[in-house]
Amino acid sequence: MPIDFELSAEQKELQELARRFARDVMAPRAAAADRSGEFPEDVYREAWKLGLMNLNVATEYGGSGLGELDQCLITEELAAACGGMTTSISANCLALQPINIAGTSDQKERFLKPFCSDYHLASFALTEPGGGSDVAGMKTTIRREGDEYVVNGEKVFITNAPHASLYTLFATLDPALRHKGVTALVVPRNTPGITPGKDEDKMGHRASSTSSLTFENVRVPVANRLGAEGEGFKIAMNTLDSTRTPIGALATGIARAALDHAAKYSLQRTSFGKPIAEHQAIAIKLADMAQKVDAARLLVWRSAWLADQGKPVPLESSIAKCFASDIAMEVCNEAIQVFGGYGYMREYPVEKLLRDAKLTQIYEGSNEIQRLVIAKELLKRVA
Ligand SMILES: Cc1cc2nc3c(=O)[nH]c(=O)nc-3n(C[C@H](O)[C@H](O)[C@H](O)COP(=O)(O)OP(=O)(O)OC[C@H]3O[C@@H](n4cnc5c(N)ncnc54)[C@H](O)[C@@H]3O)c2cc1C
């Protein structure tokens, strides 16, 4: 298929739907939710009603069955209004993807369908207190007893954990087995022995909820296991391969918003008798910011397009996520500079964007880990 940057009529409609929702529902609430740290669940319910959640669930289970490029178009629009709300809205795609990847048709019927017939949140529970990057080093254990597994351990930094009705949990048969012991389970929230921790007080993405999850002798039916014992590491990595590109889109949305704010401000603010946009130092800053946003979007679209062709994208999704999140930090930083002292004030939108951008360099695989993946893939290709 030739390269074609034209979006289909359906994609333009989706983009417009997301843009309107972001502008009319999310943006007016973003600053207040950032300040208070409230969890604006009514916004998330509204997103669900409009079909802006669970984008990756197949139509046969009641979902919209959208492709990765469609997801990225929606995510960029939402993130331009509020990174935190977008993290909470898209956390369902992350949590449900292991079921898409490794679930049997019975498991998909049981676990995916309820998300499409009613509003629910799900969480992806992988990271542990001892380290998120070294996934194979996890300590949360599962022990088989008859038709059940008994889970003990703790997860941290889990998006939407206290509000979710379902967790996709990764735990190990034995920590000494490293990646070969990791096993994926679907765990309903109401299973006895699960305790979500307090909501973390975060630097950014404050409209999103993040907390620990403790599992104390939690009994999960073997029928809730995704794939075989020991396949959980592969399932987690395949999941992150497909959700990394939308994180690039999320970062691109934040950067785009910073550029828009800075460009508008530069036309209104005057110094030395003219709009600051007419000072070349500011115009050049804006031009550099625009190039970075464009490049990030193109890398995101390339990775999503390849994934939609069924191609594996470990390299391309890492490049897209890493580049987009790095430039989001640079562009937000420059936007603050364009705003001068006002940029440093909470009353203006750009300092929030910088705080929100920072997370995109850390979660779903830190950028150091992305660079390791990129180097490994690159070296494999030249060896
Ligand atoms: C707001 C928020 C929401 C999150 N949501 C979720 C969620 O829903 N589910 C979930 O499972 N997790 C979630 N996470 C966890 C996130 O994915 C981890 O924080 C991330 O993977 C990094 O793990 P860590 O914090 O343990 O850092 P560590 O792994 O301890 O790393 C610390 C630093 O060392 C670097 N480092 C580590 N190993 C290497 C190496 N081999 N080479 C070079 N550098 C290295 C890292 O890049 C980082 O800079 C969330 C985190 C945050 C902050």
Quickly list its features.
383 residues; alpha+beta; Butyryl-Coa Dehydrogenase, subunit A, domain 1; Butyryl-CoA Dehydrogenase, subunit A, domain 3; 15% strand; binds flavin-adenine dinucleotide
Task: Explain what you see.
With 383 residues, this protein is α+β, with helices and mostly antiparallel strands. It folds into three domains: 9-117, Acyl-CoA dehydrogenase/oxidase, N-terminal domain (Butyryl-Coa Dehydrogenase, subunit A, domain 1); 122-229, Butyryl-CoA Dehydrogenase, subunit A, domain 2 (Beta Barrel), CATH 2.40.110.10; 234-382, Butyryl-CoA Dehydrogenase, subunit A, domain 3 (Up-down Bundle), CATH 1.20.140.10. 53% of the residues lie in helices and 15% in strands. It has eleven helices and ten strands. The protein has helices at 9-36, 41-49, 68-81, 83-102, 105-111, 113-117, 232-268, 280-308, 314-339, 350-360, 367-382; strands at 122-125, 141-145, 148-159, 166-172, 182-188, 194-196, 210-221, 225-226, 270-271, 274-275. The strands form three sheets. The protein has a four-stranded mixed β-sheet. Helix 9 packs across helix 11. The chain is globular.
CATH class of the largest domain: Mainly Alpha
Q: What is the CATH topology of the largest domain?
A: Butyryl-CoA Dehydrogenase, subunit A, domain 3
Q: What number is the mean pLDDT? A: 97
Helical fraction: 40-55%
Q: Which stretches are poorly predicted, pLDDT < 50 over at least 5 residues? A: none
Classification by helices and strands? alpha+beta
- Terminal Cα span: 29 Å
- Arrangement of strands in the largest sheet: 1-4-5-8
